[in-house]
Amino acid sequence: MQKTAQQLDDSDPLRPMREHFHVPRTADGEEIYFVGNSLGLMPKRVVEAVQVELDKWRTMGVRGHFGGDFPWVSYHEPLAPLMASLVGASVDEVVMMNTLTVNLHLMMATFYRPTKSRFKILIEDHAFPSDQYAVDSQTRWHGFDPRQAVIRLAPDEGQLFSSAKVCQTIEDHASSLALVLLPGVQYYTGQVLDIAAITETAQRFEIPVGFDLAHAAGNVPLQLHQCNVDFAVWCTYKYLNSGPGSIAGCFVHSKHATNTKLERLAGWWGHHKESRFLMGDRFQPIPTAEGWQLSNPPILPLASIRASLEVFQAAGGMELLRKKSVAMNVFFRECLAEVFGSAVQVIAPHNQSGCQLSLEMNFPGTPGKAIHQRLEKAGIRTDWREPNVIRAAPVPLYNTFTEIWRFVKTLEQCV
Questions:
Q1: Is the bond into 364 cis (omega within 30 degrees of 0)?
Q2: How far is residue 82 from each of residues 70, 89, 247, 287, measured CA to CA in Å?
Q3: Does residue 310 contact residue 84 with C-beta atoms inside 8 Å?
Q4: pLDDT value for 355
Q5: What would the 3-class secondary structure string for the chain be?
Q6: How many other CB atoms are there within 10 angstroms of residue 24's CB atom?
Q7: In angstroms, what CA-CA distances link 229 with 91, 172, 233, 328?
Q8: What pLDDT, in 10s, does the model give residues 24-78?
């Protein structure tokens, strides 16, 4: 397998992209960094991009809003085409703003419009906590009890959700559903959900559909416009490498983005650009996804994500990245099977996986958490999820096949 790994690396057209990133080091050299699903590595060009804006602030002060190569007042606008290409959207459907959960609340303020008969929200069982909290609080805000208003979709068997079960659940509850909110990639299992099938089923019953793409954006190809998704939200610090807690992304389908009569929680920066600085007292939303903006954009986080999106552009986009990701996925599973047999199980099957493989540890007498701690000491970064899962996410932009082989051999030593 070591020889195969080296051959795959030698023929990898994306191999040079690793040089665009800072890889953390240990005393023995570079770490094996398989936690891009939690925090992506830092692109080297971030320092320069941020420094340019710091220098502008230092030398120009308030004039930086309208001066320089990237005026602050419109800094976010050139990022929309780059982000739109990664999520399968038009430029007018995408905006960089706020953080993920803030954007989720803003979207639910528009798309969760409950009535006495249709007031329920469908989410997946074991959804990421912030999504659960946001959904529960939205139902309470509208006067409903989350125990009755939130439907938690149980997996079919094991920990996975079949498209058939998801769609059947939507049909079964169609008369009471006001919103479907599901992940593009489930954070715990790494399973990729069928966005197109879920959206088609929900909209057949006129139920709005939104997706949390925190673990999908920059990981798997997306076609949000083509799939007719109503809205989507995502962070940018995982696979999109924009830095801890950085600014988030939001998608609003053009059929809604152009509708300025849609109810929303409004802010000054969502107001029509031509009259924004006239300081009028009547809100006139921009007829794009920008109409949901609240405040002027935070420039330093935007500079960071701009630098990262330029790296994605240099890499050739999501299709080429996905091709390598699939190859890494296959090789990873082959190495695991050869060394461990059934003692290490990957939760999601190959055809439903992105970068992340969630590995169930089944070694009697050796707790999985102890194995994870030993990997950490060996300079391999993964993350641990109770009760017995190690999440490992080789990222095609900066990880290698040889690192996958080294991970498996080190895991073997750890158990």
A1: no
A2: 15, 10, 15, 20
A3: no
A4: 98
A5: CHHHHHHHHHCCCCHHHHHHEECCEECCEECEECECCCCCCEECHHHHHHHHHHHHHHHHHHHHHCCCCCCHHHCCCCHHHHHHHHHCCCHHHEEECCCHHHHHHHHHHHHCCCCCCCCEEEEECCCCHHHHHHHHHHHHHCCCCHHHHEEEECCCECCECCHHHHHHHHHHCCCCEEEEEEECECCCCCEECCHHHHHHHHHHCCCCEEEECCCCCCCCCCCCCCCCCCEEEECCCCCCCCCCCCCCEEEECHHHHCCCCCCCCCCHHHECHHHHHHCCCCCCECCCHHHHCCCCCCHHHHHHHHHHHHHHHHHCCHHHHHHHHHHHHHHHHHHHHHHHCCCEEECCCHHHECCCEEEEECCCCCCHHHHHHHHHHCCEECEEECCCEEEEECCCCCCCHHHHHHHHHHHHHHC
A6: 12
A7: 15, 21, 11, 29
A8: 999 889 999 999 999 999 999 999 999 999 999 999 999 999 998 899 999 999 9
Q: 81 near 94, Cβ under 8 Å?
A: no
**How far is residue 192's CA from residue 351's CA, in Å, rounded to a whole number?**
8
The total of other beta-carbon atoms located within 10 Å of residue 92's CB is 18
pLDDT in tens, 262-316: 999 999 999 999 999 999 999 999 999 999 999 999 999 999 999 999 999 999 9
Q: Are strands 249-252 and 344-346 parallel, antiparallel or unpaired?
A: unpaired
On whether the CB atoms of residues 324 and 396 are closer than 8 A, the answer is yes
Position 403, amino acid: E
Structure-token pair, residue 139: 């139902």
The angle subtended at Cα 356 by Cα 350 and Cα 362, nearest 5°, is 80
Residue 157 has pLDDT above 80, yes or no: no
